[in-house]
Specification:
Jelly Rolls; seven-stranded antiparallel beta sheet; 38% helix; alpha+beta
Length: 470
């Protein structure tokens, strides 16, 4: 048996060896050197020109505005986050101290204090969470429209909410102090109001420790109150800075007069004649600099270039009808040393009694009778904002005649520099309530337009460097 299997094994082994030798003969290995990246003589590679670095142009006005608004929103979000974290830490520390106090004395008085503290902490946490949610912007694009649109939160509403929060904190602190006083002043001090007969009262050392606990609780509450007051001050600064960027009365655009110049003014082309016997002129102004006589609104014709004038002085506002002889003046209207702020001015006049009145910030600040009584404003004159004409009317190209020096008669010392918006004119005397509504900074004043000159509707042509801004 074994002798018969051995020859078969030898034959199989010989066949395997033959196959291996045949497979090695078919494989050819090429050890020749390959030089795919070799540079031959005489061939110099051409240098690849490098692209010019990306050059960014100067930032546009809108890029700068968006960058400022993004920084403003970032600061506001940081302030909100800081206030939220600070209040949460203080409340958690206060609750922890109260829990330790209750665990140490473990009486019915401590249970009452713990329940009261939990209720107070829950109420304060709810109020704080609601306030923080109101402070957070609801729309990211609302900040980009802060220069010309409405804010996403009302500063007055925010201030009222903070006052309510401060009042609630003071009330809770007072309630806690009364509860502690009633708890530790009775005969069951340290053992609870329901102490069993025969129980021992705490010694003087225990009373001293309880007084220290009460003092620490009061100090913690004082710290919360001071932190919230500081937050109120910081949010007030944010409100004031945001108000400086917003246009008043919901206006979406304003006229910018960058500097005092005889070439910078705005012509107004009313759709209806100005031949009236009564009128009211109102506007919002934000001057950057004021001279002795700064022209805001001027109307005149060939015979009398000073039919209507609304002017600003160093600290006063002036209003004339029919000439400079009829003058209404109100002092202490402009703050020359303070920051530039929006001022609402109105001038009203009626020829029936010749009564002229001047309004500032929605209040009547001056009134004079007998001003151009029985007079009627002539039609065909020229109406300007930010300047007055020293002649009667523009030169006529067809006739080649006119008043010499009319076009060049502007005085740069009387020119207005600053911003102006909400310019309207009516052919009647507005009531006190109507003027008060127009003077509301957060009110819909820009929606109440005049029937002779309407802001945003009547054609107004800026000249020189004057321009409309959002």
């Amino acid at each position: 048996m074994f002798g018969w299997r051995l020859p078969q094994a030898v034959c199989a082994l010989s066949a395997c060896v033959c196959l291996i030798l045949a497979y090695e003969e078919d494989i050819e290995v090429n050890y020749a050197d390959t030089y795919y990246n070799e540079i031959t003589d005489g061939e110099t590679p051409e240098p690849t020109p490098s692209q010019a670095p990306c050059s960014s142009g100067d930032l546009s006005k809108w890029d700068k505005i968006f960058s400022m608004l993004e920084n403003s929103q970032m600061r506001e979000n940081m302030l909100i986050q800081y206030a939220d974290d600070m209040i949460k830490v203080e409340m958690a520390s206060l609750r922890g101290e109260m829990l330790r106090f209750v665990a140490r004395y473990g009486t019915s008085c401590g249970v009452a204090l713990e329940s009261a503290g939990r209720k107070m902490a829950s109420q304060m946490d709810g109020r704080i969470r609601e306030t923080v949610e109101r402070l957070k912007p609801r729309d990211p694009t609302s900040v980009a429209a802060a220069d010309g649109g409405n804010s996403v939160w009302n500063p007055h509403h925010l201030e009222a909410t903070l006052q309510q929060l401060l009042s609630a904190a003071r009330t809770q602190a007072s309630r806690l102090a009364k509860l502690e006083t009633s708890c530790f002043s009775g005969p069951g001090v340290g053992m609870g109001l329901n102490a069993k007969p025969g129980s021992q009262l705490p010694d003087a050392g225990g009373a001293g420790l309880r007084e220290q606990e009460v003092t620490s609780q009061a100090m913690a509450l004082d710290g919360v109150l001071s932190a919230m007051q500081q937050m109120s001050v910081e949010l007030g600064e944010v409100q004031r800075s945001s108000k400086q960027r917003l246009l008043p009365a919901g206006c979406e655009m304003a006229l910018l007069f960058p500097m005092r110049s005889r070439r910078i003014y705005t012509s107004v082309i009313p759709d209806v004649p100005l031949s009236v016997s009564s009128f009211t002129v109102c506007m919002w102004v934000k001057p950057t600099s004021v001279s002795n006589r700064t022209v805001l609104f001027s109307y005149g014709n060939r015979r009398n270039p000073y039919e209507i004038q609304l002017l600003l002085g160093q600290t006063s506002a002036l209003f004339t009808v029919g000439g400079e002889a009829h003058l209404v003046e109100a002092r202490d209207v402009v703050n020359p040393g303070g920051p530039s702020e929006w001022i609402h001015l109105c001038g009203a006049w009626s020829s029936e009694q010749g009564l002229a009145s001047l309004w500032a910030a929605g209040k009547k600040v001056a009134s004079t009778p007998g001003v151009a009584e029985g007079h009627v404003l002539p039609d065909g004159g020229s109406l300007q904002l930010g300047q007055e004409r020293n002649g009667c009317c523009p030169l006529s190209p067809s006739s080649g005649s006119g008043v010499t020096g009319f076009d060049g008669g502007f005085d740069p010392k009387m020119a207005f520099a600053g911003k102006m918006t909400g310019v309207n004119m009516w052919d009647r005397v507005l009531s006190e309530e109507e003027i008060s509504q127009l003077a509301l900074r957060e009110g819909p004043g820009s929606n109440l337009r005049g029937n002779m000159v309407a802001w945003g509707v009547t054609e107004m042509v800026p000249h020189g460097g004057a321009q409309f801004i959002n």
